[in-house]
Amino acid sequence: MLARMKPILGATLAGSVIGYFGTQNFFFPAMPEPAFAPMIASPLMASVVYMFIVVLFFDWVVQKAGRPMFNAMVIAISQILLVDVNYVMIGRRALEPALVSVVLILVIWAGIAFVYEKLSD
Question: Could you report the per-residue pLDDT of 22-64, keeping only the tens digit for each?
């Protein structure tokens, strides 16, 4: 795993930057105020911690199956189906923030896979 730290950290940084700016500038403005206080007060730090966990999972998937971009899109589409499509269907999310979320999820995962692949040996 130490040999893969460069792509793991690079992908975490890419996902964090895209996720932070995307959610702050596009997704959050489309959503109502949150019902609960965040577990991590700093949105940037929360994004980095979340992305590190996500990229560790992504690294595991890539090590098992290869093809970073393909696997990133499988994870992205799964996330979209489980959250955005489901939440719109059951009335927990309006269509506008769901569509913003779909685009943001695809861009985040494409960024993660691109950076991961470029930094891998």
Answer: 888 887 787 777 667 889 999 889 989 999 999 999 999 999 9
Read off the tokens for 74.
């499988």
Q: Is 66 left (phi over 0), alpha (psi -120 to 50) or beta?
A: left
Q: For tokens 């569509």, what's the residue?
A: 99
Buried b (16+ CB within 10 A) or exposed e, 55-94: beebbebbeeeeebeebbeebbeebbeebbeeebeeeebe
Q: What are the tokens at 120? A: 């891998």
Tokens 């959250």 belong to: 83
Cα–Cα distance measured from residue 62 to residue 96, given in angstroms and rounded to the nearest whole number: 32
H-type alpha helices, the chain: 5-22, 28-30, 43-65, 68-79, 86-90, 95-119
Q: What is the pTM of this model?
A: 0.81
